[in-house]
Amino acid sequence: MSDPFDLSDVAPAPPLAPPAAPAYLDSLNDAQRAAVEATDGPVLVLAGAGTGKTRVLTTRLAHILDSGLAHPGETLTVTFTNKAAREMKERVEGLLGRSVEGWFLGTFHAMAARVLRRHAELVGLESSFTIIDTDDQLRLIKQVMVANDLDDKKWPARSLAAIIGRWKDRGLVPDKVSGDEAGEFANGRAVELYRQYQTRLAELNAADFGDLLLHNLTVFGRDAAVLAEYQQRFRYILVDEYQDANVAQYLWLRLLAQTHRNICCVGDDDQSIYAWRGAEVGNILRFEKEFPGARIIRLESNYRSTGHILAAASGLITHNEGRLGKTLYPASEALGDKVRVLGTWDGNDEASTVSEAIEALQRDGHALHEMAILVRAGFQTRAFEERFLQIGLPYRVIGGLRFYERLEVRDAIAYLRALAQPADDLAFERIVNKPKRGIGDASLRTVNLHARTRGIPLQAAARELIETDELRGRARKALAELLNNLERWRISRTTMALRELASIVLDESGYIEMWRNDRSVDAPGRLENLKELVNALDEFDNLESFLEHVSLIMENAEAVDNDMVNVMTLHGAKGLEFDSVFLPGWEEELFPNRRSLEEGGVTALEEERRLAYVGLTRARHRAVVLYAANRLTYGQWLSAAPSRFVAELPEDHVQRESVSAAYYAGFGDADAVDPTSFDRPSFGGRTSSWRRHTSHAPIPAIETQDHAPGTFAQGSRVFHQKFGYGQILAIDGNKLEIAFDKAGTKKVMDSFVNPA
DNA sequence: TCTCCGTCGCTTTTT
DNA sequence: GCGACGGAGA
Predict the structure, then answer these.
(1) Exposure b/e, A626-636, CB count within 10 A at least 16 = b
(2) Rounded to whole angstroms, how far apart are CA atoms A580 and A623?
């Protein structure tokens, strides 16, 4: 296998051949084309929502490769998500009509990991270092805090993790954190704890996500030759979603672009919604300073949304002060529907209003997967889920627990880590007593103590201890067996396929058995996931590449594109688009979110507003904003005022309606909205079932019934008032998946069916 | 080692 | 109002 870092194979760029302009350039508008063809020197592309940002980036890369300006290995293209990277790769290859190898295209983290594996020794790591996730990170931080006698009640480990994370985002190693930044935490000892945490990571031969970039900066700072090598190599650098870059990423890019200065960053300050995790919109402003003479190209022609939607979104975002200024123009003349703004009675009313609108659209022939419900916070999805289950509307919630985050999957991976990396104490601690082997806290403390005094990893310490009488009978025996097993699996590793190895490990360790014996409802699902994990191993050549994949690809496998309504957070929707978008929960406290405002003041309010802007601009043809007069908050019904964003939507482009007069009846604090602005005569234009009747449609009468657990069994026949007879395919708590004889397969709540 | 009970906190999240 | 987590006690 060729070493991807070997630079000797990189041919110098062939002389500039004058190619005929390929067809893909012709379909661009002037601004887009300028952004593609300005290959020489730094370029900043300010690309509004729906203006073809990805298109510009992919075409630019294709153009660079096609015209012979650079060899694939001389280009660096960075994105934030694996999904974006994959898309970029596919689209560029599509434009070129051939596959491309050897280029540096991927997420910031994946690219940084690639560099770091090659120069790990410069930061005191081995090339085989483990990339730990936030879970391990938190456990490690807790350990450091315990070692410092800090009360984790008073000083939560999460807060320290966040503080350290922010420092890393800003490119600050412990020595660089200035004294006055120490802050309140642990009476100003945060920097010291940060230092200790880094020491522990090095001892474990591990790096957290923030380290990947941070260590790169250290590597570049320590070895000028290494830096120069990469600076020489990357003739062209392309950056996606630049507004999301943190300072560390900015510094990284700045270093790498120094020699050739052909860097092209594409971003939109109005879509910056990740400041809370370190993104610095200021990077956009810095760009001009850092690269004097940088060309700035604005993409302002929006190809996505119809006129009213775009105007409503633009009107809203003008309430933000800190903007670079950009005007979006609709690419087509069509004004389309106005943005509908609906007041509802409460969260349930909101959910049924949305589901009725969805069903109406469906009857008009609109596909469900072209509709999305975008919420501010995760808990909001529940009301929609319940309602959809009730009426049997297919939906999928995007986000939530990812495959590799599941408890059982993480345990299984910990076994593999413990055998691949004997120094990986975190993995060892995770599996040492799973399943229960009688190695409890006391035994583990002894092992830990020994490891500390000897300065060796836990596994090595355990091995030494079982030769002594330090540990009592049962624990000693169990530990010996585990260590022997790990040793044996380690040997098998050389002769066995990965998949086979994993099944043997999971089987012989008793881990599978543990879940088989577990009587809880989710045990079967967990066994299923373990099977899936083992199957997934077939795609990897070796354990190392699998573990790298696991740590860098945290996303869910793309759901099969069944026709389902999408439910997700506004954050999760960035970069996506749908024909119809529903935006519920536009209420003060919820959106803009109170906690967010408390923490970040005006800056945070503007970020919330950008989030609203992102939500609206996801819609191609239809956008509906909803707010409820009453909302169940922490188990209490509270009356809610409409979001200030509702009032900020420009009047000419919205159609305000209230679902029922009931809105006012329950809405005591109506000062925030002008009631006269509601219930205006509906605006002209397309009339269809889309336009809803103002009266409150009754919820279809379906009798619900409580069933004792165990009433239903897989395979048994049931009757549903709306869907008729069917057979149970699967049971997930009180959700049933049923193949109805007439209505197809649907997920419903058990309270809506009876045994047939 | 397990289980029970009180306390807390409760926005967004890729890698 | 609910779930996670940690401490206490059997």
Answers:
(1) bbbbbbeeeee
(2) 6
In this structure, what token pair is assigned to residue A138?
């938190």
Distance A108 CA to B14 C1' (A): 10
- Give the C-alpha separation, A88 to A749, whole Å: 40
pLDDT tens digits for A167-223?
A: 999 999 999 988 777 777 777 788 888 999 999 999 989 999 999 999 999 999 999
Q: Which amino acid is at A183?
A: G
Nucleotide nearest to A634 (CA to C1'): C1
Q: Considering the entire predicted model, what is its pTM?
A: 0.82
Q: How far is CA A284 from the centre of its chain?
A: 23
pLDDT of A554 higher than 90: no
CA distances from A736 to A322, A372, A561, A732, A740 (A): 49, 23, 21, 6, 12
Tell if A277 CB is < 7 Å from nucleic strand B. Answer: yes
Q: Is the CB of A636 under 7 A from strand C?
A: yes
Q: How far is the CA of A153 from the C1' of B8 (A)?
A: 10
pLDDT at A441: 76
pLDDT digits (tens, 9 = 90+) for A657-697: 876 544 444 443 333 343 333 333 222 222 222 222 222 33
CA-wise closest residue to A558 among A87, A101, A79: A87
Considering the candidates A51, A77, A130, A271, report the single residue annotated as catalytic: A271
Q: Which amino acid is at A587?
A: E
Q: How many CB atoms lie within 10 A of CB A549?
A: 15
Tell me the residue ranges of DSSP E strands in A564-635: 565-569, 578-583, 619-633
Q: Is the CB of A599 under 7 A from strand B?
A: yes
Give nucleotides in strand C with any atom < 7 A to a protein C-beta. Answer: 1-2, 6
| Cross-strand bridge partners of residue A738 | A728, A746
> Which residue is it, tokens 């996303």?
A555
Report the 10 Å Cβ neighbour count for A504.
15
Which residues make beta-bridge pairs with A104? A76
pLDDT tens-place string over residues A93-125: 999 988 999 999 999 999 999 999 999 999 999
